[in-house]
């Protein structure tokens, strides 16, 4: 039996890939160990979207090369986006690495490990599965979790000039809708009540088998139209015990009327969307090749809010992109203020290999990028603070995920607007996977404190059962 450890650098997509790496190695008679020092095979699952993750990988490989001097039989694998992007350059610059494997080749990993451990040479395998895309899933087991990520597609057909994803994940390939629905059905049987549909441009989804009925309000002649709303409707219809469907990351262009209507009509859709914008300046959006303007973004959010009053919106922003002036940055601040984003992931631009932007001047000094990021975060904190304070006294529907990290007597979960809500003195084991009604009593910096309403208390079951064995009760109405 081969003992292996997987270390993840990067985003949710990478976390998800690490689960798939673990599944593939475990199925090949491997044993997962927590401590890399106990492993025969160490897999570093990398990200190349930001330069920082790349630096982390280099220092980790440096550390492992020392370990490998003591244990020459140790096998070091570099997987993920950086593996795809750099290929054999990794073998040349990091001699401690034995295998470089791209995201589409994970299933081949046990065979490559066996070859290397039998004395074979270092190997690079980074081929996109364009002709016959595979969508591996981690095993569906009852682990007491109420939430799960579900892959719907991979790759990206956009060419945002700063972004390395089209080069590390390849073109868009979609998972058949029946596979997606089947996986959700099985996850719900284990107690999952909220799924997050994953894709680089998740709302450009199209069913490769053509099994979906067109969604109401879909406009087939609109180039931005997709079958994402139809997929959501199919999931909602076939999995009635599912309480929430979230999704990341959508592209603003594909927030079409059919998707807005799904948000309005389906109780399974929460009142929140994460909608990346990247900049509030049309000049920057053009240089970024985002294929939408500031006005179009604002207009889509306004129409979504008309359709679903009170829906909250969060976003991603890059500061200090090539040529960004003070005025461009002020426009970003004004867009965030105008839209009233209640959450924001901000990043300083860094040049990524192979991207169109590498030919532009990365001309915003580091100190200016840092100062802009600080100002952006300050604005974001102010908007979030106002928003959270405004919720005190209101009633919110919270999907309970488990005990609070800071106080195990409390439960924690997310409201339908995506705020983190800690629930005072709650019997979280009984409530995990249920939507409960909570009265908000106090705002924190990034979350809320709430108390179960009397009606929600009255609905709580009295009997206590092991979380992994329980059949989850549906305590409240769907949100
Ligand atoms: S839409 Fe743009 S930013 Fe998002 S993954 Fe595709 S290229 Fe990258």
Task: Jot down its keywords.
479 residues, alpha/beta, Rossmann fold, pyruvate-formate lyase- activating enzyme, OB fold (Dihydrolipoamide Acetyltransferase, E2P), 3 domains, 6-stranded parallel sheet, 5-stranded mixed barrel, 15 helices, globular, disordered C terminus, binds iron/sulfur cluster
Q: How does the SSE layout of this entry go?
A:
Blueprint: E1 2-8, H1 12-27, E2 30-32, E3 41-46, H2 51-70, E4 75-80, H3 81-86, H4 88-93, E5 99-101, H5 109-117, E6 123-125, E7 147-151, E8 153-154, H6 165-169, E9 173-174, H7 177-189, E10 194-198, H8 228-238, E11 244-248, H9 257-265, E12 272-274, H10 282-287, H11 294-307, E13 312-319, H12 326-339, E14 343-348, H13 366-390, E15 395-403, E16 411-415, E17 420-423, H14 428-431, E18 435-443, E19 447-452, H15 454-459
Parallel strand pairs: 1-2, 1-3, 3-4, 4-5, 5-6, 7-10, 10-11, 12-13, 13-14, 17-19
Antiparallel strand pairs: 8-9, 15-16, 15-18, 16-17, 18-19
Helix pairs in contact: 7-8, 8-9, 12-13
User: What sort of overall outline do the alpha carbons produce when their principal axes are compared?
Assistant: globular
CATH topology value of the largest domain: pyruvate-formate lyase- activating enzyme
The description of the largest β-sheet is:
6 strands, parallel
Name of the CATH homologous superfamily of the largest domain: tm_1862 like domain
Number of helices: 15
Protein structure class: alpha/beta
Write down the domain tally: 3
Query: How are strands sequenced across the largest beta sheet?
Result: 2-1-3-4-5-6
Q: For the record, what CATH class of the largest domain applies?
A: Alpha Beta
Helix residue percentage: 25-40%
The low-pLDDT segments are 463-479
Percentage of residues in strands:
15-25%
Strands, total number: 19
Radius of gyration: 23 Å
Q: What's the N-to-C terminus distance?
A: 47 Å
- In the CATH hierarchy, the architecture of the largest domain is Alpha-Beta Horseshoe
């Amino acid at each position: 039996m081969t003992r292996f450890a997987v270390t993840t650098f990067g985003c949710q997509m990478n976390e998800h890939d690490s689960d798939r790496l673990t599944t593939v190695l475990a199925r090949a008679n491997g044993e997962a160990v927590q401590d890399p020092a106990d492993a025969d095979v160490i897999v570093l699952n990398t990200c190349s979207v930001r330069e920082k993750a790349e630096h982390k990988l280099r220092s980790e490989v440096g550390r492992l090369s020392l370990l490998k001097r003591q244990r020459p039989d140790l096998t070091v694998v570099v997987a993920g986006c950086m593996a795809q992007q750099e290929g054999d350059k990794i073998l040349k610059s990091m001699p401690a690495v034995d295998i470089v494997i791209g995201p589409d080749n994970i299933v081949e990993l046990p065979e490559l490990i066996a070859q290397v451990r039998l004395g074979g040479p270092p190997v690079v395998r980074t081929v996109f599965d364009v002709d016959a895309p595979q969508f591996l899933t981690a095993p569906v087991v009852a682990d007491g979790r109420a939430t799960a990520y579900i892959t719907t597609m991979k790759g990206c057909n956009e060419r945002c000039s700063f972004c390395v994803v089209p080069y590390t994940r390849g073109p868009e390939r979609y998972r058949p809708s029946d596979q997606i629905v089947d996986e959700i059905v099985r996850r719900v049987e284990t107690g999952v009540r909220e799924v997050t549909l994953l894709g680089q441009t998740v709302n450009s989804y199209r069913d490769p088998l053509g099994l979906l009925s067109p969604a109401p309000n879909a406009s087939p002649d609109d180039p931005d139209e997709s079958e994402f709303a139809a997929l959501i409707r199919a999931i909602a219809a076939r999995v009635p015990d599912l309480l929430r469907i979230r999704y990341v990351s959508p592209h603003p262009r594909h927030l079409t009327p059919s998707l807005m209507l799904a948000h309005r009509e389906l109780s399974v859709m929460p009142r929140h969307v994460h909608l990346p914008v990247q900049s509030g300046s049309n000049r920057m959006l053009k240089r970024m090749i985002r294929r939408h303007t500031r006005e179009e973004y604002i207009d889509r959010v306004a129409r979504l809010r008309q359709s679903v009053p009170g829906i909250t919106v969060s976003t991603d922003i890059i500061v200090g992109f090539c040529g960004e002036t003070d005025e461009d940055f002020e426009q970003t601040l004004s867009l965030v203020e105008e839209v009233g984003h209640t959450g924001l992931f901000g990043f300083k631009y860094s040049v990524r290999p192979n991207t169109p932007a590498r030919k532009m001047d990365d001309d915003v000094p580091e100190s200016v990028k840092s100062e802009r990021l600080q100002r952006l975060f300050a604005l974001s904190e102010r908007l979030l603070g106002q928003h959270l304070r405004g919720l005190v006294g209101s009633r919110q529907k919270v999907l309970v995920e488990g005990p609070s990290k800071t106080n195990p007597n409390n439960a924690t979960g997310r409201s339908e607007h995506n705020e983190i809500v800690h629930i005072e003195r709650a019997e979280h084991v009984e409530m995990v996977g249920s939507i409960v009604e909570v009265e908000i009593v106090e705002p924190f910096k990034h979350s809320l404190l709430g108390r179960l309403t009397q009606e929600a208390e009255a609905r709580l079951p009295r009997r206590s059962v092991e979380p992994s064995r329980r059949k989850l009760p549906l305590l409240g109405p769907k949100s």
